[in-house]
Amino acid sequence: MVAGQLLYVVTSPQDVTDVYKNTRTLTFDEYAQDVMKSIGVSDDGITKLWSTPEKSDNRGGLHKALAHAGEDYYREQFLPGNRIDVLWPRVLGLIDSAMQWDQLPQTPGAISTDGVKTVSLLEWKSKVLLESVITAFFGPQLLQIDPQLLLHFAAYDEESWKLTYKYPRMMSKNMYHAKDQLVAAVETWLNLPRDKRPDGAWFIQKLETESSKLEMGIKDLAAMITSLAWVILSNAYKLSFWMMAYMIFDASLYAAIKAEVEPIVTAGTTKLETRIGECPRLIALFNEVLRLTTASASIRTVESDTPLGDKVLRKGGKVLLPFRQLHFNQDIFGSNTGGLEPERFLKNTKLHNSSSFRPFGGGSTYCPGRYVARWEVLTFVALALCRFGGISLASAETHMFPELDTKKPCLGIMTPIPGQDIRVMVRKKAT
């Protein structure tokens, strides 16, 4: 029992698999409703999102609750297919444009000299990837509506765990203010005529169309879309930070990955995500950094007494599946689970399919955005290595490798401990 709530923590790989398979008595809806409420969806909005249409309802062919239909739209948008074939080239083009010498961000405190720019590694990653994905999903209008959107996102993302733990507003004013600003920006965007924001992603337009049939308020829709956007945006830039950090602190790893990807990047960016996805060292590093930095977890509600292994989960209980414990399973990953060893994924090419490796969850909540997240990270890393003359630690500063902020609750990729960002020197490539 935790605070009066019956809680089951499941760490056995087989039990985790069995939990994911059971969608009848172990459900995700209650947690999803809590998330939507906490970010600002009203009780009326929750009722409309989870109401099952009667046969007589005129919802244009919608035969399930919009909350569940929305999961289908999300998958259709992000899993391989026609929708992602339209969206991803927009993301790639924006990242490509941002990864040019003259576009290196002049972040606060950045220093520029002839042929060398000194920048915050974390700020660089977040600016490029967040701006690219936001623009691809909403067109340029959202960042025009709120030019401080990235700052609000960073402030919200840093303390979003307080929303999950239901901190009162008076105890987390900065987080709530940032959250309110994000929802307000999306609401303003939704209030623009459709022809003034023609580049909205398909699944956002679909949610807008279907929610209007339910007479759902714009503010509720804005809160729902903000919640989904936060999930889409909050992890890729952190993962790319850690991948680059490991390489910057290990010259041989940096050189090996660069040698592997440089011929591919030199050949152009067309289908770059597919071609660099065939680089074994790069993919091994991607998987290993995911293993080390992921703090995700899945949550289910026990709807009725449910056997699991040699136990029975009682109705009303919560089931927690913490992936980090799975990722440190020495029977699967070897004795040095706390250290970076990309070679483990090279030696065992099936390791990424292990039931103990679940950086993107599983079952009905297996993250559809995993493809775009992977492509974002790999594209950024490959272009960072090859577009510039070199990236190294700022020479005037002494750096220790940043530590993961394991004390702060996290539902995705962990950030470094505050104050342990890395300042790097980026050199202009000779022409």
Would you kindly provide a written description of the structure presented here, covering whatever features stand out?
The structure is a single chain. The chain has 431 residues and is of the alpha+beta class. Helix content is 52%, strand content 9%. It contains 20 helices and ten strands. The strands form three sheets. The chain has a four-stranded mixed β-sheet. Strand 6 and strand 7 form a beta hairpin. The chain is globular. The termini are far apart. The model has no long low-confidence stretch (mean pLDDT 93).
What key phrases describe this protein's structure?
4-stranded mixed sheet; 431 residues; globular; alpha+beta
Quick recap:
With about 425 residues, the protein is of the alpha+beta class. The protein contains 20 helices and ten strands.
Give the oligomeric state of the chains in this entry, treating copies of one chain as homo and distinct chains as hetero: single chain
Report the helical percentage.
Answer: 40-55%
Number of strands: 10
- Placed side by side, the strands forming the largest sheet appear as 1-8-5-2
Strand content: 5-15%
The termini sit apart by: 64 Å
